[in-house]
Amino acid sequence: MIKKSFISFLFALVAFGFTACDSDDNNGQVRVPNGAKPSKEFKIGNCDKEEYADDAVKLNVKSWGNGGIAQEFASIELFADGHFLITSTKAATMPKSKVGVTRAADGSTMFKKNGGKPLQTRATDASGTIIIDNGLYTYGTYTRVKEGVYQLSNNTKIEIKDGSLTGYTTVTYTNSLGKSITITVTIDVTNKQDDIVRHICRSWRMDSAENWLLAGDVTIGYGKQWLDNGRVMQHTTLTKEGKNMGFDKDDLVEDDEDYCYRVIFSPCGTFVCFYIDGDVEIGTWEWTDTNNGVLRCWETFDWDDDDDDDDDDDDFADMTVRFEGKQMRIYGDFMDKEDNIIFRTLSVATFSAKY
């Protein structure tokens, strides 16, 4: 979700693509800065496969043992970078987001903390296994013991009986107490591992986050953030016009602790954002236009306590993705009209393919 303090001056939210952004539009806006424009052609970069790319899978539990041991999780997902994500059974009681029913946000939304309820994390053991949001998720590392057998860092193990990984299969799960449980799972094959899916499905380190703010034909300012030896650095430029309109540098960049330094995409439609202060957010993604590189991301669960769709939070973000070599850039374009002035936020997040 969009951090409210960042764009509190915006009201009715409408997402626009970059198709018509190469020249001045009919609303009298300034030309889009060159740095905020994606290339017209969408093509794949040249990233190598991650170590566990062929093992990446999501196992959704259908039946659990013989009833003698309580079900411990709803799903296990193995990521291509050697990490896993376990979703607990309490996820079934969480309200799902109504994606596509409400409105879209700007393209940098997925890299800004949940405005209503950020997920808190804490390390639980020396291996670095993390419990997220009081047990809703467990995140850690895994190793392949042999084909179909995986040891997880939370001292559990899964053995997939059917190597074909299609439809239903049987899994032997050994919990942290050494108890072996036979479970039936469905294999998530929502996203086939074609080139475009394989290329984005990896761990990405954020190199920088940039934002341009415009009001009508006036440039308000520019802000950029990046990491230097673990410290969030920033540069802001506020125009005279922006100052006269009451803007300051806090409208151009996020708070340091809200900087998202790493993002993981999985081939089963999960993304995970890691923030510099230790918080983690987990959501869902899909390609909505693979010809033009349009990516949609949304939160899996509805964290709001009410059903008011007219609040300041937004349910999904449509973004333009471009790959070049071992880098990925995600572009956002966000508009609002207030008092006959069109406000616009342009954003670019640049990533490198590395843990």
What would you say this structure looks like, in words?
The protein has an 8-stranded antiparallel beta barrel. The protein has an 8-stranded antiparallel beta barrel with strand order 2-3-4-8-9-10-11-12. The N terminus is likely disordered. It has 355 residues and is mostly beta strands. The chain has 2 domains: 192 residues, Lipocalin (Beta Barrel), CATH 2.40.128; 122 residues, Lipocalin (Beta Barrel).
Q: The CATH topology of the largest domain, please?
A: Lipocalin
**Helix run count:** 2
Count of individual domains = 2
Biggest β-sheet, characterized?
Answer: 8 strands, antiparallel, barrel
Low-confidence stretches: 1-29, 99-109, 305-313
The CATH class of the largest domain is identified as Mainly Beta
Order of helices and strands: EEEEEEEEEEEEHEEEHEEEEEEE
**How widely separated are the two ends?**
24 Å
Radius of gyration: 21 Å
> Which structural class matches the secondary elements?
mainly beta
Mean pLDDT: 79
Question: What is this structure, in a nutshell?
Answer:
With 355 residues, this protein is mainly beta. It has helices at residues 195-200, 240-244, and strands at residues 14-15, 57-64, 75-78, 83-87, 104-105, 121-123, 130-132, 137-146, 149-152, 156-160, 168-174, 180-187, 203-215, 218-228, 231-238, 260-265, 270-275, 280-289, 294-299, 316-324, 327-338, 341-353.
List the helices and strands and how they pair.
Layout: E1 14-15, E2 57-64, E3 75-78, E4 83-87, E5 104-105, E6 121-123, E7 130-132, E8 137-146, E9 149-152, E10 156-160, E11 168-174, E12 180-187, H1 195-200, E13 203-215, E14 218-228, E15 231-238, H2 240-244, E16 260-265, E17 270-275, E18 280-289, E19 294-299, E20 316-324, E21 327-338, E22 341-353
